[in-house]
């Protein structure tokens, strides 16, 4: 039995609150059990130097743990003057996950930065960040763009942690479970069922091909549930994902809306 009495494949309670902050084009508070992350999406009329003149946009992410998001205070990385390797790894993962479901050509020469700030950490912060960041990204694009020939978001995207505990494979590990897991894995999937990323590590032992398959089965069911939650939260906006408007004018930027 797990410490919080969940079954092996059961998610922690999930809550996604849209329009959580005042100024960002898209903002979300995602709560996965005790883990809480604020995700904000900002759209700017510029692109990195290597994309200028390409007609293509860019999506990137930044990630941080607030000092008392954990049981003991974590120093601000800005105060240390350097990001940790963990932070760099996580924000690159978030960026890759989001870009996998964005038509960068349809975005035009615009950049979207999604900031994921963990205000309370109890395991699964990177996967919660991806799941929440996707909703913030959709809201930012829906809010900002007027007429367009194609909605730049092509599919849903969600992520989950799975692992092998003392009693076998489990879904959505809290910090206590993650710390003791024999195997820890993060899985990112699309609404079409395709894998964006699989990060699996034998923390305290090895795992078999059969165990890998079992973990992926758990991740598939969990991410399907998360994407259903995203769809419910987005309401009618969800219907625009992947939609093409052949008679619409060229994409217009309405940053002063």
Automatic annotation (TrEMBL):
Family of this protein: Belongs to the RNase PH family.
NCBIfam families: RNasePH
E.C. number(s) listed in UniProt: 2.7.7.56
Lineage: superkingdom: Bacteria
Keyword flag Disulfide bond: no
Subunit structure: Homohexameric ring arranged as a trimer of dimers.
Species per Swiss-Prot/TrEMBL record: Veillonella tobetsuensis
MF annotations from Gene Ontology: 3'-5'-RNA exonuclease activity; tRNA binding; tRNA nucleotidyltransferase activity
Protein task: Phosphorolytic 3'-5' exoribonuclease that plays an important role in tRNA 3'-end maturation. Removes nucleotide residues following the 3'-CCA terminus of tRNAs; can also add nucleotides to the ends of RNA molecules by using nucleoside diphosphates as substrates, but this may not be physiologically important. Probably plays a role in initiation of 16S rRNA degradation (leading to ribosome degradation) during starvation.
Transmembrane annotation, as ranges: none
Enzyme class: transferase
Example GO biological process: tRNA processing
Reactions that this protein is recorded to catalyse: tRNA(n+1) + phosphate = tRNA(n) + a ribonucleoside 5'-diphosphate
Keyword Translocase tagged: no
Occurrences of domain Exoribonuclease phosphorolytic (ranges): 10-140, 156-221
InterPro entries: ExoRNase_PH_dom1, ExoRNase_PH_dom2, ExoRNase_PH_dom2_sf, PNPase/RNase_PH_dom_sf, Ribosomal_Su5_D2-typ_SF, RNase_PH, RNase_PH_bac-type, RNase_PH_CS
Record key words, sorted: Nucleotidyltransferase, RNA-binding, rRNA processing, Transferase, tRNA processing, tRNA-binding
Protein's UniProt name: Ribonuclease PH
Binding site for phosphate: 86, 124-126
Pfam families with a match to the protein in the record: RNase_PH, RNase_PH_C
């Amino acid at each position: 039995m797990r410490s919080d009495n969940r079954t092996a494949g059961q998610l922690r309670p999930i809550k996604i609150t849209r329009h959580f902050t005042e100024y960002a084009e898209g903002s979300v508070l995602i709560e996965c059990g005790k883990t809480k992350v604020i995700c904000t999406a900002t759209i700017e009329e510029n692109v990195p130097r290597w994309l200028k003149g390409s007609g293509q946009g860019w999506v990137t992410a930044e990630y941080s743990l607030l000092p008392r998001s954990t049981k003991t205070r974590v120093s601000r990385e800005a105060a240390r003057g350097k990001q940790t390797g963990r932070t760099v790894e996580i924000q690159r993962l978030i960026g890759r996950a989001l870009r996998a479901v964005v038509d960068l050509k349809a975005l035009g020469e615009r950049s979207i930065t999604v900031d994921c700030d963990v205000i309370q950490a109890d395991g699964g912060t990177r996967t919660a960040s991806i799941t929440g960041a996707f909703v913030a990204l959709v809201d930012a694009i829906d809010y900002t763009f007027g007429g367009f020939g194609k909605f730049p978001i092509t599919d849903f995207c969600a992520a989950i942690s799975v692992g092998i505990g003392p009693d076998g494979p489990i879904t959505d590990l809290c910090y206590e479970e993650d710390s003791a897991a024999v195997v820890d894995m993060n899985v990112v999937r699309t609404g079409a069922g395709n894998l964006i990323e699989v990060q699996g590590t034998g923390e305290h032992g090895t795992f078999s091909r059969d165990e890998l398959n079992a973990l992926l089965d758990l991740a598939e069911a969990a991410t399907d549930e998360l994407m259903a939650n995203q769809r419910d939260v987005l309401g009618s906006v969800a219907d625009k994902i992947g939609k093409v408007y052949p008679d619409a004018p060229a994409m217009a930027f309405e940053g002063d809306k």
